[in-house]
């Protein structure tokens, strides 16, 4: 690690970081609007109380990076491996983001909010999603195995497929219409019209 570069209360708009390497930086209370971070290396950074709006992070690397109280709004985060982020500084929230093919394997995501997100084929295995909210998010093909989902709210989520035998679901919230996604492996026909 080299000398850390600090950024405080700054706004970055329409900056193209595509494919660039940004390491050993600390961003406090910064805003990033319409920035392109696709395929960037963002390792060993700290983002503290930052907001990213309409940014592209597809296939970016966040190895050992802290995302403390960071909000992603309308961002594209396809293929990002969040499992390697700094686990002690990891409290992001996601609103209206495309997060297909991301990995949260083993991540601590207590109280994390995924609102109106596309979470296709996302890996949530071994993660702790206690009290997480998946409001209006699409979970098609998302993988849950040995995942802690206690008190998680799936009531407005779509395309749920979670095996209760291999996940902790105590007090998780679902609707009657979502039962099929919890019983899929039994090949039952659930009829809501009877």
TrEMBL record:
Gene3D superfamilies: E3 ubiquitin-protein ligase SopA. This is Pentapeptide repeat-containing protein. It comes from Myroides pelagicus.
């Amino acid at each position: 690690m080299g000398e850390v570069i600090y950024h405080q209360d700054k706004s970055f708009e329409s900056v193209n970081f595509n494919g660039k390497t940004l390491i050993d930086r600390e961003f406090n209370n910064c805003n990033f609007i319409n920035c392109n971070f696709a395929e960037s290396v963002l390792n060993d950074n700290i983002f503290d109380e930052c907001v990213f709006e309409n940014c592209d992070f597809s296939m970016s690397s966040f190895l050992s990076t802290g995302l403390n109280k960071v909000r992603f709004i309308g961002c594209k985060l396809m293929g990002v491996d969040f499992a390697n982020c700094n686990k002690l500084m990891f409290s992001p929230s996601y609103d209206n983001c495309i997060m297909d093919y991301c990995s949260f394997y083993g991540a601590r995501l207590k109280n994390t909010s995924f609102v109106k997100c596309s979470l296709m084929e996302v890996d949530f295995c071994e993660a702790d999603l206690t009290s997480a909210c998946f409001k209006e998010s699409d979970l098609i093909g998302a993988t849950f195995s040995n995942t802690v989902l206690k008190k998680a709210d799936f009531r407005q989520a779509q395309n749920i497929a979670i095996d209760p035998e291999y996940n902790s679901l105590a007090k998780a919230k679902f609707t009657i219409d979502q039962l099929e996604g919890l019983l899929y492996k039994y090949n039952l026909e659930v009829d809501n019209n009877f």
